[in-house]
Amino acid sequence: MAQVEATTERIVTADPETVFDTLADYKVGRPKLLTEHFSEYEVREGGDGEGTLVHWKLQATSKRVRDCLLEVTEPTDGQLVEKDRNSSMVTTWTVTPAGEGRAKVVVATVWNGAGGIGGFFERTFAPKGLGRIYDAMLAKLAAEVEK
Fold first, then answer.
1. Which residues of 78-111 are buried (b: 16+ CB within 10 A; e: fewer)?
2. What is the spatial distance between Cα 12 and Cα 146, in angstroms, rounded to a whole number?
């Protein structure tokens, strides 16, 4: 099994604290950022950063749906880590200053991919598909915090 990784980033015109707080708010902020690829979104515990347990289904393609149950931690300032209890998938959101009144947001997801020919296609196409989903989420994030 090879590790598969998808990474996307964006500069947002808002202070890093506002950006991070929006991402860490799984009750109000995060649902506003979700695309049509997400369904059955539900906060099961917590709701604000560290200690949150959140569920959703992610439909990355017409045939592929992941049932995700994510534990959220904040290992360092400006970082949210979502570990899926149902798979090897880990998503890390990192928010850092990018000049006066600006923030750089990087979202990176890694997971253990399949082997064989299926794994080849997963490693080839999954990062691009997930990247498009994250691009759309980051655009919504920018629209939300740049108001």
1. bebbbebeeeebebbbbbeebeeeebbbbbebbb
2. 7
Rounded Cα–Cα distance for residues 35 and 135 (Å): 10
Tokens of 78: 């400006």
Pick the closest to residue 57 from 71, 36, 80, 74 (CA basis).
36
- pTM reported for the whole predicted model: 0.90
User: pLDDT digits over 4-61, tens only?
Assistant: 888 999 999 999 999 999 999 999 999 999 999 999 999 999 999 999 999 999 997 7
Residues β-bridged to residue 106:
9, 94
